[in-house]
Each structure stands twice: as structure tokens, then as C-alpha cells.
Amino acid sequence: MPRFDLSPADLRVYRPEVAEPADFDEFWRATLAESRALAEVPRLTRVDAGLVTVEVYDVEFSGFGGDPVGGWFVVPAGAAASAPLPAIVEFNGYGGGRGLPHERLAWASAGYAYFLMDTRGQGSVWGTGGTTPDPHGTGPSTPGFMTRGILDPATYYYRRVFTDAVLAIDAVRSLAQVDVDRVSVSGGSQGGGIAIAAAGLSEGLVGAMPEVPFLCHFERAVGLTDRDPYQEIVRYLSVHRDAAATAFETLSYFDGVNFAARATAPALFSVALMDPVCPPSTVFAARNRWGADAAADAGAPVADIVEYAFNEHEGGAGAHWPRQAAWLAERLAERLAERPGA
């Protein structure tokens, strides 16, 4: 697909004003407090996945409203006898589930504790499936997840998913194999959008690594691309013609640009300049606002970005992981250097 968005030079300085509700922080403070009050200790079950260099655990932790959410926790073999490890919490792309543990071994093979969160209600579009239901009903919606509960932020689908993500970080930090001060988040597409939200709602992360992130700058995205999942919103509003103002007000509580502004950890983004699914301007809108609301004495965290000039939504694909690994190693070294007595 040819380039259809702003020029690369304009993208790098693109910093739009995105609608932000006056009660954004209070909405999320109350949402997280309600679900944290219902959280139970995560349950781990050792799984024989036919792997000898790593240990695999099936995890169930408490998500939104105390709902059980699944995930895979994978650590290097013998991790229980070692010092606590840095951890990666990864979120999945749209429509996919956590799949099978042997499908994602890179981070554990590199010496990290790795947690992959299942996305509630998803897992039946690609990959090898998911196992976490979404027990909450919504009003009328288009097929897919983008318009479920869209007329009220309290019922919107991603309120539950973003809460799951923050509580997944809480759960991982409670595990004996994990160094609580060296936890990072990552994900591609939807997973990148979830990682941005989790970074904006969590304290003390080492880093965030959103790849070609979805769920950013909704109002621009739905008018710029003709691809799903954003087109789910367009189809909904083409039928519910009087609902646009209400729908976009709801979406403002879930816009990655608003979460990005609240982030306190450094970030490594990726963007594909020919991406028709997550247009590059929507990615840069979040990246260019990263940490904008940071305390003046702390300064805004760094937000690096890797541009893939001739790629679509696959972005850097497998070529991007070595960049992430090198970038994260630097952030971990910086965190260790900050410790007393280092």
C-alpha cells in the first residue's frame, strides 16, 4: 500500500489535541480500586509443555470485577533457585488468544520471566486459541469488540481489558521468580494499545514496548482507514446515526494518547509508515505525547521509536525483537544503577 498519511517529517512532530474527559483520572482510580479490592492470590499450575530449557505455568489471576483471567508464565529452567528475574508482561493482538506456551519462548530464552495475558472474550480469529471468557453483556454492537458497551465508559469492553492488564502486572509482581522493580510491558497492535494503557495506569515499570499500537487517536483513525477493527466503529455509527457524540466521549476514556501522556516509564515504539490498520499518525500521536504529564521535577521519560518505512501492519516483525532486547537491556542496567549501593 502506498503512503497515505502525513509525511515522515510531519509525523515526527504530530502532536494533536485529543479529547480528554475531566474525570479521566478519577474514573480509572475508582475502576482499579474496585477490582483490586476483589483480587485473589494468583494460582499457578506447572505444565508439562514438552520443553526442557524453560518452566511453564498455567496462571489464573483476578482481573476486572474479580473475573478469572488466564495466562502463561514462562521462566528459564531452574529459575526458582536463582535471584528474582526481570519480567516482561505481554498483551495480545486483536482476536488472538494466549495460544500454546511453545509459541513464545524468546524472552524466557533470553533470561526473563515472561507472562502472556489472555484477552478476555478473544482467541477465536487466529492463532491457537484463548480460554478466558468475558462474562459481561453489553447493548447492541457490531460484530467484534470495538463497539461493545460503547455508549457508556462504565460498560465499554476495554474498561475490562485495561483493568485486566494492570492487575496482570500486579499479579506478576507477586510471584517469587520476579524482581518487582524490573517489570516491563509489551505487545503488538491491540497488545501495543493495551501496553500503553497499562503503562499510563501503573507505576514503577522499567519500560514499555508498544509495536504498531492500536487504540490510539480514535477520531482520526476511524476517518482515515477503511480497515478493521476501526471500521467496526464506522459500521456501528452508520446505523446508530445519532450516537457519534456519545460514542466518541466513551472512547476518550480509552484513547492511548491520554494514557501515553500519563506514562512514567521510558518507551520503545515501532511504527510502519505504510500501515493501513493503525495509521502512522495515530501511533505518533501517542508517542509524541508520551510522559507529557510527568512531574516537572522528574522530566518526561524517553520515548524512542523505530520507523519501518516500507512495511504495513506487520511492522518490524521478527526483525524488531533484537532491537527490543538491546533497548530493554540498557533500561535494566539503568534501573540497577539507581539502586542503593550500586
From TrEMBL:
Domain Acetyl xylan esterase positions: 1-293
InterPro entries (alphabetical): AB_hydrolase_fold, AXE1_dom, CE7
The name this protein goes by in its record: Acetylxylan esterase
Source organism per UniProt: Agromyces allii
